[in-house]
Write a structure and sequence with these properties.
By secondary structure, the chain is an all-alpha fold. The protein has three domains: about 400 residues, no CATH class; about 70 residues, Alpha Horseshoe (Serine Threonine Protein Phosphatase 5, Tetratricopeptide repeat); about 90 residues, Tetratricopeptide repeat domain (Serine Threonine Protein Phosphatase 5, Tetratricopeptide repeat, Alpha Horseshoe), CATH 1.25.40.10. The chain is built from 31 helices and no strands. α5 runs antiparallel to α6, α14 packs antiparallel against α15 and α29 packs antiparallel against α30. The protein is elongated, with a radius of gyration of 30 Å.
């Protein structure tokens, strides 16, 4: 295969992939499902690359994960595109195209087999199961981690052909970058051992196994370290589900069935969804039994019966092994499987097909013709399916509508649809959707809290209070539910009950800044100024970037007859954080009038009127300040 043919295939792969994914340039964010956490409402990300954001990327919690390189890539996108979703989508597509070409090159480099490598690359580029990883902005971690996965393998192959410290260091660094993109790359050292077996052929005798394992000790050390970091972060965020909720027998049963579901979806990618609900109850024994027997049968065949065909062993163990972190033995979230989880594992199955089918047909007279036509038909089918699947990712409403059609009783998708409707301003439809979802799965405290928030916006305070109380019944130690219920009780003119629930929220979560400031507001209204000041100051100590709290603190200092200069400091802090905050600007102007600083006060009143010309308080204050200034000059 000459360079011209290689270049031609690369061009075809790029064009085909672009033909599928060009449409995402006009797609939107999906704010109801992680895009808000990763980009839209992430204050560190949406401002672009900053020193503070860089530090946070390596020290903060990223939606229950730790993948600093992924967060830096989102920051870089915001640097170039701002919050234009199309630009973010295009970046993911470019990474996917780069991964496709890298996969082709790496396989050809390792095996010296061009057409099987080209088939694997084409299947990888165009399989509908991979659409989620490319078309969902929050799955940037998939395309980015695969990029470094392939760079690590490429560096490793170069190292095996001419070992040396510098070349091994490149392997180590590429792997480290991959782990900081997504933690699932912890399986890569094991895959490198598989590649030693085939196609690198480094397994000569039994002594080689020990040598090759020792060789990868630095990589295994990174794997262990990343595993601890991942468990620590996810436990802290609450994404790792408890054994009580998902017992081990349930996890194991779902895991073996999930392996078979992935294989089925690889060959028959229909009814794909952004979310597949976990059964949350024991699957039928016959279903688990069939899955176990099939997995054992395939494993025995590829490891023993057809062990001379090493690519089968490598492909199968690649698929089985790389899915282990995501198969549900450690249950993350409430999904049974996920399309995005196939992004790396399916390469193993593609390898089995690409090398196995030609060998199976090697004695056929028209082998090349059959293989060529079959490959073209398969890739054409995948291309058409992926184009259709990609179109479902236009926005939140579109993707969730399709998911509801593709899955049965997916209460999670219904909740996501409810959130989407709320974001779109369709509050009545959102409430109806929440109620339908809660009929299917009533024991969902977070969703009851979310629905109550919508009810509050509609002014339906009695209903909202009932939902918050139901959430507290389900999770008595929900600080958010207690705080939000207190907010409703305050609106309903029940200050004592509100204070009680604010205090319960703070008992549960002492560093809850909002609960401190809310409690301070109620105490201020009750004339308990000293206690209010204490709460405001605690809130600001926890979270300093709260202009409203600074304004409230200044107001209560004035109310209790405190020093005007001290109150002015608070109002100025509020304006530093929010220059268009008229209440703080007018309060500052009022203090300046008290202090006799009439010129500055007048300027602040005028600025307040430029921001809101209808502000009667600013207009009245301006007149009074001008009168007092004139009297002072006389």
């Amino acid at each position: 295969m000459n360079k011209f043919h290689f270049f031609g295939v690369c061009v075809v792969l790029v064009l085909a992939t672009t033909a599928v994914y060009w449409q995402v340039g006009g797609f939107e964010f999906i704010p109801a499902f992680d895009d808000d956490l990763y980009v839209i409402n992430n204050d560190f990300v949406k401002v672009g690359l900053t020193k503070v954001g860089f530090i946070w990327a390596f020290t903060g919690n990223h939606a229950g994960n730790w993948h600093p390189l992924t967060m830096l890539s989102h920051m870089l996108d915001c640097e170039f595109y701002g919050l234009n979703a199309g630009g973010h989508h295009v970046t993911s597509v470019l990474f996917h195209i780069a991964n496709t070409l890298l996969l082709l090159f790496v396989l050809k480099y390792m095996t010296d087999k061009f057409w099987p490598s080209a088939f694997v690359a084409a299947a990888f580029a165009l399989h509908p199961m991979h659409v989620e990883s490319v078309a969902w902005i929050s799955s940037r971690k998939d395309v980015l981690s695969m990029f470094f996965w392939l760079l690590t393998i490429l560096a490793y192959v170069r190292y095996t052909r001419r070992p040396g410290f510098t070349r091994y260091l490149l392997v180590f660094l590429a792997f480290a970058f991959g782990l900081t993109s997504k933690s699932v790359l912890i399986t890569l050292p094991f895959v490198l051992l598989l590649l030693d077996y085939w196609p690198l052929g480094r397994f000569k005798n039994s002594g080689d196994i020990k040598r090759l394992i020792y060789e990868k000790i630095p990589l295994f050390a990174l794997t262990i370290a990343m595993s601890f970091v991942t468990v620590f972060v996810e436990r802290g965020f609450g994404t790792i589900q408890s054994i009580t909720k998902y017992p081990m027998n349930l996890r194991a049963g779902n895991a073996v069935v999930s392996y078979m579901n992935y294989i089925v979806k690889m060959f028959c990618p229909t009814n794909l969804s952004i979310f597949y609900p976990h059964p949350r109850q024991a699957l039928p024994v016959w279903q688990i039994t069939i899955a176990i027997l099939l997995l054992i049968f395939i494993t025995v065949v590829v490891l023993y019966v057809l062990r001379r065909n090493r690519y089968l062993t490598v492909g199968w163990l690649w698929f089985i092994g790389t899915l282990v972190p995501m198969i549900g033995l450690v249950q993350i979230g409430n999904q049974a499987i996920a399309d995005r989880y196939s992004y790396i594992p399916f390469t193993g199955l593609f390898i089995m097909i690409a090398w196995g089918v030609p060998q199976l047909l090697e004695k056929w007279q028209y082998r090349k013709v059959v293989l060529g036509i079959s490959a073209v038909m398969a890739i054409s089918f995948l291309t058409a399916s992926s184009w259709i699947q990609t179109s479902y990712w236009y926005d939140g409403r579109t993707v969730f509508t399709h998911a509801l059609e593709a899955t049965d009783n997916s209460y999670v998708v219904q909740f996501l649809m409810a959130r989407t409707l709320y974001i779109e301003g369709k509050t009545d439809e959102s409430i109806s959707q929440y109620k339908r979802a809660l009929e299917i799965s009533p024991n969902q405290p977070n969703e009851r809290i979310n629905m109550a928030t919508v009810l509050v916006e509609k002014g339906r305070f009695d209903e909202a209070a009932e939902e918050y109380k139901k959430a507290i019944d389900l999770v008595p130690k929900s600080a958010v539910a207690h705080n939000n219920l207190a907010n409703v009780l305050w609106v309903q003119k029940k200050p004592d009950e509100a204070i009680s629930h604010y205090r319960k929220a703070l008992q549960i979560k002492p560093n809850y800044a909002k609960a401190h400031s809310n409690l301070g507001r109620v105490l201020q209204s009750q004339g308990q100024f000293d206690l209010a000041i204490e709460q405001y100051r605690q809130s600001l100590q926890i979270s300093p970037n709260q202009p409203v709290v600074y304004n409230n603190l200044g107001s209560v200092i004035l109310n209790m007859g405190g020093e005007p200069a001290l109150a002015a400091v608070q109002f100025r802090e509020a304006l530093l954080l929010s220059p268009n905050y008229n209440s703080a600007r007018i309060n500052l102007a009022t203090v300046l009038v008290i202090q006799g600083e009439f010129d500055e006060a007048i300027e602040h009143y005028k600025q307040a009127l430029r921001i809101d010309s209808s502000d009667s308080r600013a207009r009245r204050g301006l007149k009074e300040a001008m009168v007092k200034r004139n009297k002072a000059r006389k």
